[in-house]
Design goal:
This protein has 219 residues and is an alpha/beta fold. Helices cover 25% and strands 30% of the residues. Bound molecules: guanosine-5'-monophosphate and magnesium ion (MG). The site of guanosine-5'-monophosphate has 20 residues, from strand 4, strand 6, helix 4 and strand 9.
Length: 219
């Protein structure tokens, strides 16, 4: 008999091609008060879509790390909701056989990359021999994840893979391959689900594109 529901790994990155809110029928997702609605051009990715992709990711990582105890490193602060929700699904499908740590990296000031990355809280002294999955909120130019990746390699891990929630379609000045990319997005500044605008908007459940008035008001 043909097996049913055979899992064939994480489906390819979901490419979002428009920033128009109508793309995902955003009206039903507007849960914001009227007075902040003007701050956003629209919902780019609703929470339900994010959760679905994360669920698929947890199954893919379980299958890719069979008989291994992966070590998850998430890049704070932005990757926290992504990693938190991933962990919840991962525990359901794979149990508790993993370890975790955070690394804190900052590269953005306002809406422009400072170009200089600061490792604010990183201790990779225990990663030797471990199979690592790095969790990042967004890959823009690739510089941040490239730096963490290169720094990690100096500490002799057994393997390193990169999981990113968002991959921005811009020229990668620091090429890095995301082994697991959930959404490919246009070149827009996005906030929500961990992504901040000068430390606001991180707590929103969905991913939004800021409007021009939002950029002015929140600046
Ligand atoms: P990269 O080093 O790849 O150019 O940039 C990655 C970092 O820049 C991310 O970890 C994130 O903190 C920040 N970043 C890049 N694009 C965006 C964006 O559209 N919105 C927000 N909030 N942060 C971004
Ligand atoms: Mg980040």
């Amino acid at each position: 008999m043909e097996p049913v529901n055979v899992y064939e790994g994480l489906s390819p990155v979901m490419s979002i091609t428009t920033t128009k809110p109508s793309y995902i029928g955003a009206e039903e997702y507007w849960r914001l008060e009227d007075y902040v609605k003007d701050d956003f051009a629209g919902v780019l990715i609703p929470n339900a879509s994010i959760r679905k992709r994360i669920k698929d990711l947890s199954v893919a990582i379980r299958d890719d790390y069979k008989n291994k105890n992966p070590h998850f490193i998430w890049v704070a602060d932005g990757a926290w909701p992504f990693f938190r929700d991933f962990k919840q699904h991962y525990r359901e499908v794979a149990g508790n056989g993993f370890t975790e740590q955070l690394s804190r990296v900052k590269s953005y000031d306002g809406m422009s990359s400072t170009g200089k990355r600061k490792f604010l809280d990183v201790d990779f002294s225990d990663v030797a021999g471990k199979d690592i999955v790095l969790f990042e909120d967004i890959i823009d130019t690739g510089g941040t994840i490239r730096d963490v990746f290169d720094y990690l390699q100096q500490h002799d891990p057994a393997s390193v893979r990169v999981a990113t929630l968002l991959d921005k379609r811009v020229e990668k000045t620091h090429p890095v391959k995301a082994d697991y990319a959930l959404f490919s997005i246009p070149d827009e500044f996005v906030v929500g689900y961990g992504l901040d605008y000068d430390d606001s908007c991180r707590d929103l459940d969905d991913v939004y594109v800021l409007s021009e008035s939002g950029q002015r008001r929140l600046a």
